[in-house]
Specification:
Distance between the termini: 27 Å
Oligomer: single chain
Family: Belongs to the multi antimicrobial extrusion (MATE) (TC 2.A.66.1) family. MepA subfamily.
Protein name: Multidrug export protein MepA
GO molecular function, one term: xenobiotic transmembrane transporter activity
Largest sheet: none
Main location: membrane
Number of strands: 0
InterPro entries: MATE_fam, MATE_MepA-like, MATE_MepA_subfamily, MdtK-like
Order of helices and strands: HHHHHHHHHHHHHHHHHH
Number of domains: 1
Helix content: over 70%
Structural class: mainly alpha
Radius of gyration: 21 Å
Strand content: under 5%
Shape: globular
């Protein structure tokens, strides 16, 4: 751990960013395969494949919401722990504060798991119907979600605790935590779906088992001597003040993820009203492809964040400025590249998810609109991660709210009344462009302030 800390503060920045970001990118890309692989296999089930795919797509807002709670504790606590580790070079009590943050994050994750499991098992059907399910698709949605929610504890711990491994500079270990589970999911999916003939239920079983495997790996590491931040009974003491700090910073990534759930609900209900099941299926495919575009960028910014947080805590502001400047350049270039690739071969990418000719044609025709602002999205992601890394909760919360709550949801509700179902797809590029420009302005203000900070 001492060597990891030294690297965060002194190693050549280019090679260090590559060392930390590459495993994080790989981990994020592989992690998204959990849901995407499910959709690819489900979309090729012989009987009623398009209905099954749409049914699982209806579950997406709930799955996203479950992940949002894990980010609330994990993405909120890990930067704070990293800042404390940076202070530990000149403050002997900093490490104990960092471990207290970890302990309170564990308590929050377990509490969230219990609460979410109970709520969604009891109110599953009415929630799914409210989220855009139809009588034709809800049997598939219920089959998938009932099993998935039984494994909520594994979702919370695997997603919520992994950032604490990355915060210590162990990017490779954090990557393996996700790779192990994702590879297991890829192997188990066809076995449970086709060999055991369980359909969407099999996809859910495979996902839960895979997440359980990841959780075991992560917990074992965080209890071992290799980890500077260790889970032990001594740190599992709830402290309202610590939980409040985690909550203040975790609210931003929570909003970013939870509002994704709200957006899916607004999209699905609007699409069902103005277009029908086939439009919900098309949106399911395009949201999956959108994840493929932005997840590598998110992985990169997540990997770089510990460098920013650690050096900010250590007072090395020159290194902080250089890191965040490079981060935004690279994120922007990556988003431009993603837009070019995805829009150059739309049919190829859509065909991965379904063989239904009508669904393919519809999705391909709508992609130029829905993906119209992907090229600038990297700017907002880098800015958002900078605010979180520096512990600037208020700014990060505003940026999180701006794109989705202030812009996207109202646009998705209003535009269809003037443009029909296509208005829902137009809301995405309008909101993304506006929020990216605003985020960049706030980023410049933040960057400038670091020059004067002592």
């Amino acid at each position: 751990m001492d060597n990891s800390k030294s690297q965060l503060g002194t190693a050549p920045l280019g090679s260090l960013m590559l060392k930390l970001a590459l495993p994080s990118i790989v981990a994020q890309v592989i992690n998204i395969l959990y849901n995407i692989i499910d959709r690819i296999y489900i979309g090729h089930i012989d009987s009623a494949a398009s209905l099954a795919l749409t049914g699982v797509g209806i579950c997406f807002p709930i799955i996203t919401l479950v992940s949002a709670f894990s980010l609330f504790a994990g993405a909120g606590g890990a930067p704070l722990a990293a800042i404390e580790l940076g202070k530990s070079e000149h403050d002997k009590n900093a490490k104990s504060r960092a471990e207290s943050i970890l302990g309170n994050a564990v308590i929050l994750l377990v509490a969230f798991a219990v609460l979410l499991t109970v709520i969604f098992q009891i109110f599953m059907r009415p929630v799914l119907m409210a989220f855009g399910a139809s009588e034709a698709t809800i049997p598939y949605a219920q089959d998938y979600l009932r099993i998935y929610m039984a494994g909520t504890i594994f979702v919370q711990l695997s997603i919520g605790l992994n950032p604490f491994i990355n915060a210590q500079g162990f990017a490779g270990t954090a990557m393996l935590s996700i790779v192990i589970g994702a590879v297991a999911n890829i192997i188990l999916d066809p076995v449970f779906i086709f060999v055991f003939d369980m359909g969407v239920k099999g996809a859910a079983v495979a996902t839960v088992i895979s997440q359980a495997i990841s959780t075991v790996w992560i917990v074992i590491f965080l209890c071992s001597k290799k980890s500077s931040l260790r889970i032990s009974p001594a740190i599992l003491k709830f402290k309202p003040a610590v939980a409040a700090k985690i909550s203040a910073l975790g609210l931003s990534p929570f909003i970013m993820s939870a509002t994704e759930s709200a957006i899916s609900v607004v999209f699905n209900t609007g699409l069902q009203k103005f277009g029908g099941d086939i439009y919900v299926g098309a949106m399911t495919i395009m949201q999956s492809l959108m994840q493929v575009c932005y997840i590598p960028i998110q992985g990169f910014t997540d990997g770089v964040q510990p460098i920013v947080s650690y050096n900010y805590g250590a007072g090395n502001l020159k290194r902080v400025r250089t890191t965040i400047k490079r981060m935004i350049y690279i994120s922007f270039a990556a988003s431009v590249a993603a837009a070019v690739i995805i829009l150059a071969f739309p049919k190829t990418f859509v065909s991965i998810f379904t063989s239904d000719a009508q669904l393919i044609s519809l999705a391909v025709s709508l992609m130029p609109v829905y993906f119209g602002a992907v090229w600038i999205f990297g700017v907002q992601m880098a800015a958002q991660r900078t605010f979180v890394a520096l512990g600037r909760a208020k700014t990060s919360i505003f940026v999180a709210l701006l794109r989705k709550v202030i812009l996207l949801i109202p646009l998705a509700l209003v535009l269809p009344h003037f443009m029909g179902v296509n208005g829902i797809f137009w809301s995405e590029p309008i909101a993304s462009t506006t929020s990216a420009v605003t985020s960049f302005v706030l980023f410049l203000v933040c960057y400038s302030s670091l020059k004067d900070k002592k």
